[in-house]
Design a protein that fits this description.
The complex is a heterodimer of chains A (408) and B (140). Chain A has helices spanning 8-13, 40-52, 63-82, 97-107, 130-139, 156-162, 185-194, 214-217, 242-247, 282-298, 300-319, 346-355, 368-374, 390-407, and strands at 21-22, 25-26, 28-29, 91-94, 117-121, 142-146, 167-173, 198-202, 221-225, 236-240, 258-261, 266-268, 324-327, 336-341, 358-359, 361-363, 379-383. Chain A is an alpha/beta fold. Chain A has two domains: 8-30 and 299-407, Aspartate Aminotransferase, domain 1 (Alpha-Beta Complex), CATH 3.90.1150.10; 43-296, 3-Layer(aba) Sandwich (Aspartate Aminotransferase, domain 2), CATH 3.40.640.10. In chain A, the strands form five sheets. Chain A has a seven-stranded mixed β-sheet, with helices on both faces. In chain A, a hairpin with an 8-residue loop joins β13 and β14. In chain A, α3 crosses α10 (282-298) and α4 (97-107) packs parallel to α5 (130-139). The longest helix of chain A is centred in the N-terminal third of the chain and has 20 residues, at 63-82. Chain A is globular and about 70 Å long. The mean pLDDT of chain A is 96. Chain B has 140 residues and is mainly alpha-helical. In chain B, 57% of the residues lie in helices and 11% in strands. In chain B, α1 crosses α3 (75-88) and α2 packs across α3. Classes of the chains: A alpha/beta (408), B mainly alpha (140). The A-B interface holds A 23, 344-345, 347-348, 350-352, 354-355, 362-363, 377-378, 406-407 and B 20-21, 24-25, 28, 52-54, 73-77, 112-114, 117.
């Protein structure tokens, strides 16, 4: 199949922030795994909402409220189609992946008992560890860890060995935020189901790079944050299979999520509203829809092909720097490179790079167990998006060399 | 020298630099010259929270003056600590408590450091002052 090439120069014009200067240098934004930048199409959708039809949804009789409701529900359908969910009501709007995971973890309180087991991968973000530890504290369930190897791949034999009739839930990210590893989630899901366990996949890092089909994956829960995929912060989704969302008790009580309220008894609304208490992030949801439109206008095949090119180029160039070590060398990776320079603290490098207008992340990337595994305090992480260029990779390499010279 | 005199001296030193790179190179040099804390004091208790890199500070009273030793695993952070120690070490606790810290703005440190680092700087100063308060109570 012929893959359309992205016109990066034109694409960059969609992102006003990329014209910025930082400390006198043109911004080189390589912290996309933390948050992606926002194209004007998405910014415009936000401006349009507040300029034209800002209103509360689902209960207003007036025109603005109807328009806002339609736009918000239309965004839900956009998400549904984007990840190929069977029904729009299987998409729950949340404040983001963390919120989505907490929703499920809270719901599972009534499903678990002492001795039940939750399997979690060794390369999770804290947001996909801590809610499960809290769930274990509440229920007496046990958290077990699927180990990884030095390349940053999960050890599937160990996973298979850990699965048992006690396993009630398997939680894993689709893509590791710290290493970029793309996990074999199809296999993880099918093995978990064979053992009778449900699966939650944290898709925060996968959504910007990989086309997701939740029906094909047969996943029970899948989470996405809008801000990692060119949308605004403070909004995301939980996908859940209808049967699971029906079983799961409500998470938060409030307006919107009820059918009828008396002081004696309250009945809950149907899906998805059962999980959407209070006035939601209406504008955020609509802008999330606009972000998906934008991504789809470029196409995942073209994005993936270009990002692969960037990753290979950056890996080659960075490896040429003496004393530079890359963490996470899986053959299946998104465009994320975590690295350190021998004898230099990642924070020192990050500080000098910032002075040169280069934005990278330094630290443990909210994945301390991975840093403990490699016995390092943290890494420098450069994460590339489809709007980054090879020239920016060159600037990064020059910046690292400069920092190395200053700090060495 | 009094705290204020040392601060003025540092402000003057930094005013000679034309750009950030010279400032940072100087701080890195200062970091390298920092007298290291004794290994026994590099404990969890002596770690200052609020810094991305690890920072250990130990305080000891010598006669009526407070002496600080410190270390960090990051060199730029060490440079910042070196400046703070130059200002606050070997001073009377009462003077440390009352010291003004405007010089940090004047040498462009607060502006030039990332927000998390700036927070670390604030935490460091807070910790030094807390030590001074504790030892002042002891002296009283």
């Amino acid at each position: 199949m012929i893959i359309t090439k992205l016109d990066i120069e034109t694409i960059r014009k969609d992102f006003p922030i990329l014209k910025r200067k930082v400390n006198g240098y043109p911004l080189v934004y390589l912290d996309n795994a933390a948050t992606s930048q926002t194209p004007k199409q998405v910014i415009n959708s936000i401006v349009d909402y507040y300029s034209r039809y800002n209103a509360n949804i689902h209960r207003g009789v007036h025109t603005l409220s109807q328009e806002a409701t339609d736009a918000y529900e239309n965004a839900r359908i956009k998400v549904q189609k984007h990840i190929n969910a069977a029904e729009p009501h299987e998409i729950i709007f949340t404040s983001g992946t963390t919120d989505s995971i907490n929703l499920v973890a809270n719901g599972f309180t009534s499903f678990l008992k002492k001795g039940d087991e939750i399997l979690v991968s060794a390369m999770e973000h804290h947001s996909n560890i801590v809610p499960w530890q809290m769930l274990c504290d509440r229920t007496g369930a046990i958290l077990k860890v699927i180990p990884m190897n030095h390349e940053g791949d999960l050890i599937m034999e160990e996973y298979n060995r850990l699965l048992s009739k006690c396993t009630k839930l398997v939680v894993c990210n689709h893509v590791s935020n710290a290493l970029g590893t793309i996990n074999p989630i199809e296999k993880i899901i099918s093995l978990a189901h064979k053992a009778g366990a449900a699966v939650l996949i944290d898709g925060a890092q996968a959504a910007p790079h990989i086309k997701i089909d939740v029906q094909k994956l047969n996943v029970d829960f899948y989470t996405i944050s809008a801000h990692k995929i060119c949308g605004p912060t403070g909004v995301g989704i939980l996908y859940g299979k209808e049967e699971w969302l029906t079983k799961l008790p409500p998470y938060q009580g409030g307006g919107e999520m009820i059918a009828e309220v008396t002081f004696e008894k309250t009945t809950y609304a149907n899906l998805p509203h059962k999980f959407e208490a209070g006035t939601p992030n209406i504008c955020g949801g609509i802008a999330f829809g606009a972000a998906l439109d934008y991504i789809n206008s470029l196409g995942y095949r073209a994005i993936a092909s270009y990002e692969k090119e960037l990753l290979e180029y950056a890996t080659k160039e960075l490896t040429s720097i003496k004393g530079l070590k890359i963490y996470g060398t899986s053959r299946h990776k998104t465009s994320v490179i975590s690295f350190n320079l021998e004898g230099i603290h990642p924070y020192d490098i990050g500080t000098i790079l910032d002075k040169l207008g280069i934005a990278v992340r330094t630290g443990h990337h909210c994945a301390q167990p991975i840093m403990d595994y490699y016995k390092i305090p943290g890494t420098i992480r450069a994460s590339f998006s489809f709007y980054n260029t090879k020239e920016e990779v060159d600037i990064l390499v020059e910046g690292i060399k400069k920092a190395k010279q200053m700090l060495g | 020298m009094s705290i204020e005199e040392i601060q003025n001296e540092i402000v003057e030193e930094f005013s000679m630099f034309d750009d950030w790179m010279q400032r940072y190179e100087y701080m890195i040099e200062l970091g390298k010259s920092l007298p290291l804390i004794e290994e026994q004091y590099k404990t969890e208790d002596n770690i200052i929270k609020g810094c991305q890199s690890k920072v250990w500070v130990h305080a000891e009273l010598e006669e009526d003056k407070l002496v600080f030793t410190a270390d960090s695993d990051a060199i730029i952070t060490k440079g910042i600590i070196a400046i703070l120690i130059r200002v606050f070490s070997n001073q009377k606790p009462i003077d440390i408590i009352g010291a003004n810290t405007d010089f940090i703005d004047k040498i462009g440190l607060k502006d030039h450091l990332s927000p998390t680092r700036a927070n670390g700087l604030v935490s460091m100063i807070k910790q030094l002052k807390l030590y001074a308060i504790a030892y002042q109570t002891q002296l009283n």
